[in-house]
Amino acid sequence: MWVRIDTLVDLALEEDAGYGDITSQSIFPLAHLSQAQVLAREDMVVCGLEIARRVFCRVDSAVKVELQTSDGNHAVEGSTLLLAEGPTISLLTAERTALNFLQRLSGIASVAHQFAAAAKATGTGVRVVDTRKTTPGWRALNHRSSLGEHVLIKENHILAAGSIAEAVQRTRAQAPHCAKIEVEAESLDDVRQAVAAGAEIIMLDNMSPSLVQQAVALIDGAAIVEISGGICLDSFADYAMAGVDVISVGALTHSAPAADLSMIIAARSGS
Amino acid sequence: MWVRIDTLVDLALEEDAGYGDITSQSIFPLAHLSQAQVLAREDMVVCGLEIARRVFCRVDSAVKVELQTSDGNHAVEGSTLLLAEGPTISLLTAERTALNFLQRLSGIASVAHQFAAAAKATGTGVRVVDTRKTTPGWRALNHRSSLGEHVLIKENHILAAGSIAEAVQRTRAQAPHCAKIEVEAESLDDVRQAVAAGAEIIMLDNMSPSLVQQAVALIDGAAIVEISGGICLDSFADYAMAGVDVISVGALTHSAPAADLSMIIAARSGS
Amino acid sequence: MWVRIDTLVDLALEEDAGYGDITSQSIFPLAHLSQAQVLAREDMVVCGLEIARRVFCRVDSAVKVELQTSDGNHAVEGSTLLLAEGPTISLLTAERTALNFLQRLSGIASVAHQFAAAAKATGTGVRVVDTRKTTPGWRALNHRSSLGEHVLIKENHILAAGSIAEAVQRTRAQAPHCAKIEVEAESLDDVRQAVAAGAEIIMLDNMSPSLVQQAVALIDGAAIVEISGGICLDSFADYAMAGVDVISVGALTHSAPAADLSMIIAARSGS
Amino acid sequence: MWVRIDTLVDLALEEDAGYGDITSQSIFPLAHLSQAQVLAREDMVVCGLEIARRVFCRVDSAVKVELQTSDGNHAVEGSTLLLAEGPTISLLTAERTALNFLQRLSGIASVAHQFAAAAKATGTGVRVVDTRKTTPGWRALNHRSSLGEHVLIKENHILAAGSIAEAVQRTRAQAPHCAKIEVEAESLDDVRQAVAAGAEIIMLDNMSPSLVQQAVALIDGAAIVEISGGICLDSFADYAMAGVDVISVGALTHSAPAADLSMIIAARSGS
Amino acid sequence: MWVRIDTLVDLALEEDAGYGDITSQSIFPLAHLSQAQVLAREDMVVCGLEIARRVFCRVDSAVKVELQTSDGNHAVEGSTLLLAEGPTISLLTAERTALNFLQRLSGIASVAHQFAAAAKATGTGVRVVDTRKTTPGWRALNHRSSLGEHVLIKENHILAAGSIAEAVQRTRAQAPHCAKIEVEAESLDDVRQAVAAGAEIIMLDNMSPSLVQQAVALIDGAAIVEISGGICLDSFADYAMAGVDVISVGALTHSAPAADLSMIIAARSGS
Amino acid sequence: MWVRIDTLVDLALEEDAGYGDITSQSIFPLAHLSQAQVLAREDMVVCGLEIARRVFCRVDSAVKVELQTSDGNHAVEGSTLLLAEGPTISLLTAERTALNFLQRLSGIASVAHQFAAAAKATGTGVRVVDTRKTTPGWRALNHRSSLGEHVLIKENHILAAGSIAEAVQRTRAQAPHCAKIEVEAESLDDVRQAVAAGAEIIMLDNMSPSLVQQAVALIDGAAIVEISGGICLDSFADYAMAGVDVISVGALTHSAPAADLSMIIAARSGS
Question: What's the complex ipTM?
């Protein structure tokens, strides 16, 4: 599963340090060794530690990295996430790229955790997922399905096919039998047609909680119910209580603020 | 200048639509033609139109694209940013990737515009720049300098070299003569040393506006003054009025929310 | 959808003609023009024409290609599939690579057509699909789902989880809600457990037609029934009549013989 | 020699498991360890073991692989070819890609062995080679020469040059002096001309054994004699006895059936 | 034949102008158009014009290029080699990379021409070739054979095999039948053994002209005679007159001085 | 900093040995081990040892390499630069590529050292740098700045902007504040204008030593003075004594002759 991630790590290193770090090379001899600590500067859910480890090792296989926690754990402000030891020039060359991955992925994980906690608090078993509105080039880190895997019939498809029934029928004849057919519904009438057409997932797009409630009643277990569009933490519980199975939150990946992290180094005694 | 951007466009398309769009392929015949409009769903400063055009053309060279505005322009809610005409399957295959680029770049541009306007409002001639805290893989879109181009002496370098004077001297002997030497200062004492060492840019790190004012007085034109660290729109004017030349704002690239955009299509008459 | 295919076309051209075609370059002047015809040397179902066109154009954008039929059509021995006109050296440089794609894809398409015809002849509506046993590097041409898209619980998973019920439950909690959960069954007892666990597809592995019939009766519409393992044209009808929904045939991609094709050229009058 | 093979291994893994194996990840904890055996399910000549090893190691460097035999050896049904030990998720993620390489390469090796045995049985010293009709992207595994290395004058070149003599002369003036000049002959007259022109290899295309015999007599040691076109095991001895030096068999690479292999795993005691 | 060259063009552009040309972008508006001329600043044999054209087109497909001469022609000081017209920023962005290819390839071509002229002057029909001592990454531009195509038995191979006879025999059994077997000889005794072993090319390594003459007499037409090692223009005729067939000159690619070229631009009237 | 260099090493190995070394594979068994020495065949300044080490390790990770000196050191004729031990086939496969890197980089380093010694001999503190006239694809090895990093206003920019003053002003408004603005001057009048415009570096293009002296007097410390264009070892001191700060020598990278190196191997006792 690392093949694509290595590609992204190399691309990131190449653009930040492809020609080396001239400041560090001017100041430190090649043989100078240090220990670096990556610290949380605010409370966060940590994500990206394995990737950060690969950044350090890719810059210089002589750098030894020890993770102090694991992806998915909470870290409090001031705690150490990762220790790295090796040539000082290598540690400083890797610093910015490693932090850029960690800050973005931990930022996303921290927002995701808030939504997951909100989901759990409702006691409904509702599931939170992200959308295809991701950062191009970062799919491997977000685990989102692509157009080739996910059968999602949207408004444009329905208009072109003439009806939801026709769109579902054409798709069932062509698409892989291992994918569920999902229909996007803009109205209760769409919902009725989707149920009649045998949709296996119905995505309610940009509906209010009360409209969602009516849709859930119409569907009545005949399909998985997913909602999408502008759901934030404030409105989350209202939607969850309306009886949906899955809530899709674009904010998870496209608008999470970066987490605040830093790296400090100390020369190793004797170096 | 497109070489790296093409790499990113291909990577993004490959991960979203590398194996095609099975839903659209199930519903539309290959010969079905449509016109697509990309619309702003909120007011924004637009960025990424040329990249979006390349996304459509890369999916299918038979798609014709017309930009309705230019990167850097303001767009009001509801306005059309781009028209594309061609095979319906191709338009829908390109949709999500094109929108993902536009929403992220326009989100950054809209925040950048707020800071630029704040800068202009101060009448100080202060310049706003972004930082190296970018999304890995997106350097080509942010135009940020890399470690190989920018000589920036930070706390870790100073500690290792023993003093600011020593760090500047070593760097001057090694680094390209066409790069200005920048020193990061954490205190007024650092500032004094940086001036004495002949630093050409002094970056004041995480200082309050009043401390910045004192630093500017100490530097007194001997170096370009840059500030960095936690500057937001609220505190912007205070910092600008303190007499700095350059304000570095990490939020430009690492935490801007995505702009809201959508694409609608209509079958071309006769198709 | 062409991004990955272009990668494969380039890889193929690079290995066959990365340093050019020294024989043709020795014999023809650069300005010498010809017309080439690609001919079927046996009856076949044609596949790969668009890829062959890209091979010619990638070698030399001055080559003009006209397809004489379309992918999926039958071609009789002796019929012309594609005309190409342009510099003789370019036509000969592209020849082998274009034919290699056409012969392999048309070979697969011809076998696939035999199975599809056999399926149609049964009047059962059974669907024929291929397996993940493909030629590495050729996924884009076979449209097969990957491990990241397809939830398939096999014997090894069941042993490890302790039971089919447990394996299905763990997978349902983790895997994307848009994928159907498929369970591989080696025996009727496995089938019973898979039904009880709520499997959405049950794959009967290497069962005889009569055993398949019993399994179909047990499943009784509660899941899609797929069979896999050693199905050939001779046994196809027996399996299809047993009431399955989907027949997975590895031979489609891993053992189809190459179709027989050739290219002839004629100098263009006046060149 | 591994550079290109690594590219193909990465491409294959990326398309089969670029986003991981969601079923295995749902069922096994990261720390769960197993031992896997790759077994021959029919008699075969084994090929691809080193590549299979690289597939496992590329997925996870923590997997330890032990080959139980070597490329080129015979394996009987039921024998173990390879043992791999490591994280269960990694073993299952690598399984299909490793088997896909092994089944195709062992299938080719098994057919190649039949032809080599047939050659040996004739006692003629005839050599069996494959053709350029390979699977695009797989050249590195087949060791075939490309257009840039091999000087082969075919019918199209002869027509264009006006005569075999002229084609050979132009090629000798331009092509590398370290390559032998090979001429494809369709008739005995072509053979006479090729000998007269000083061809160093003459390829007899699609001739009957008796025609081949006459051609060999005409050439009489003046050039290496190669035959190509539709040679199968049944006709092999007749051709070999006709006195040729080299027999080129396209079937080696383009139509060999996949060998039958499987992988079974067992949890390691204590894991 | 362009596949590898495109890779090199993209690599070169990416490293020189991957992030654009900030000076030109600061000075010219996007719509500003110019015409550029590439001029010879000394007499030279021109090479690389097609590659230069691709550099301009890759930077911006809106640039139109007209070649004023062809690769292989002589150009006198002051003559125009290429005209390009298009956006000024694009012309200036491409300038350095286009000139870097032209200056290096024309430098090599000019030296090659001197040796070719020296060869012709001898009236011996001797052929001049280059060696494998090339610039890594530039093989596609030098058309040199690789280790996979060329069978060259050197001193290290002979020592290991025990004798020239044994080395030739082992190689003949394994290497492609379409490659000639070449043996490197350090002494007349080596030459005798190589002839006895049936070597098809004998490379005389670092021998004086008189020693070469003796070797040629010994070989007496039984093999192609190639010489290599330290041949310069001064000694060229002596070697050629000694009766060799091929002279290998490493200086062609590894030490030719760059040709002197420049580009000037003029704003297009009306822009 | 190795990311780009690895790309170049792989490209070089692929083109020289992508399909292996057929001669060595014909002669040596896989298990045959040797020790190789890389020797200087003339006095030189060594450069490229770390890259050569990577070439050996990339071909075969079983090869162990020991450097006998370091990049930047002098080596006398006959001295050993590098020892490598491992499978004989791997050593011979890596040989040419490793030597090609070493000979070119050591050739450049040796010329660079001559200029550096000439600079030191003048006692002026003048600095020698190279130009952007490099070998495309080799930037990572030359550490030269690209168009995206270096603000250099040349004749074409000045003509277009109307004056040096205007060109400097536009550039200052747009270009990164961390780059110094350099202006190319063709005459003393250009120099005067550049000083007046506030240029931070003035590059005197193709001026005689006496003209340079006048220019230095005019600039009088207001900017760094760089000279470029046709400076050779003979004229070096005259230019250095004229008072310039930086001398840019294109010959460093574009015309340095390759250094003379060789590799010899010996079978390891017992192998």
Answer: 0.81
